[in-house]
Design brief:
Length: about 210
C-alpha cells in the first residue's frame, strides 16, 4: 500500500519536480499539490495525507507556523520541511516546530523522497542532512574563548594590576605578560584595559573566572 503525500510549495517547478520524483517511487502516491498555505491546509483537512512536504516560506504565511499547527492536529502525520536557507537556525526551528525531517531545496529530489519515507515511518523522529554537525555547533560555547592562562591574566587586569605586577604574580616575564594581554585584547575586540574588562563582563568571562578562582 502506497503512502499519500501532499506537496505545499509556491514554486511550480519545484512541486512538479518533486511530484515526478515521488511518482517514480513505488511506495508513494502524490495526493495533491498546493501553492499557498491556505490551500494546503484545506487539502490537509480534506484528504488527509500521510505525509506533508512544506516550504518554510509561502506567500500567505510561514511553513514553520503551519508545521506547529499540523503537528498539534495530526500527531501521526509525517512532516518534511523544505527551505532555501538551510542554516542551523532554520534547522532547529523546524525541529522545535515538530517536523519529522528538514531538507534544503538544493538537495536532490531523491533526498526529499527519502526524508518523506522516514517521516512516514517515524513522524516523531527528526532527521536532517547536517543534524549531527549542527548539534555539535549548538553545544559548543559561544563568545570569545580564552585559554586558562589568559583567564588568569584577565582576572588580574580586572583587579587593576599592571604588566609588571601580573608578571610577578604569575612568575612569567613581562614580555610574556604583554603577549597574553595583547591576545586577550584581540579576542575581546578591545583597544585597552577598560574596554577589555567591559567586553569580558558582557561575555560573562569575569563571572566565570570569579567562580573558578
Amino acid at each position: 500500500m502506497s503512502t499519500s503525500v501532499l506537496l505545499i510549495d509556491d514554486h511550480d517547478l519545484i512541486r512538479q519536480g518533486l511530484s515526478r520524483a515521488f511518482e517514480r517511487s513505488d511506495d508513494f502516491t502524490v495526493a495533491g499539490q498546493a501553492g499557498t498555505l491556505s490551500e494546503g491546509e484545506r487539502m490537509v483537512h480534506a484528504l488527509p495525507p500521510q505525509v506533508v512536504v512544506i516550504d518554510v516560506r509561502l506567500p500567505d504565511g510561514s511553513g514553520l507556523d503551519a508545521t506547529r499547527r499540523l503537528r498539534e492536529r495530526n500527531p501521526e502525520m509525517g512532516i518534511v520541511v523544505l527551505t532555501m536557507y538551510a542554516g542551523d537556525e532554520q534547522l532547529f526551528a523546524a525541529l522545535e516546530a515538530g517536523a519529522s525531517a528538514f531538507v534544503p531545496k538544493d538537495a536532490p529530489s531523491e533526498d526529499v523522497v527519502a526524508a518523506a519515507r522516514h517521516a512516514a515511518a517515524s513522524p516523531h523522529s527528526f532527521t536532517a542532512p547536517d543534524l549531527a554537525d549542527a548539534m555539535r555547533r549548538k553545544m559548543q560555547p559561544t563568545g570569545p574563548q580564552l585559554s586558562p592562562r589568559e583567564k588568569e591574566v584577565l582576572a588580574l587586569l580586572a583587579e587593576g594590576l599592571g604588566v609588571s605586577a601580573i608578571a610577578r604574580r604569575l612568575f612569567i616575564s613581562e614580555s610574556t605578560a604583554k603577549t597574553h594581554i595583547s591576545k586577550i585584547y584581540d579576542k575581546l575586540g578591545a583597544a585597552n584595559r577598560a574596554q577589555a574588562i567591559m567586553c569580558a563582563i558582557r561575555a560573562g568571562l569575569l563571572r566565570d573566572i570569579a567562580a573558578v578562582t
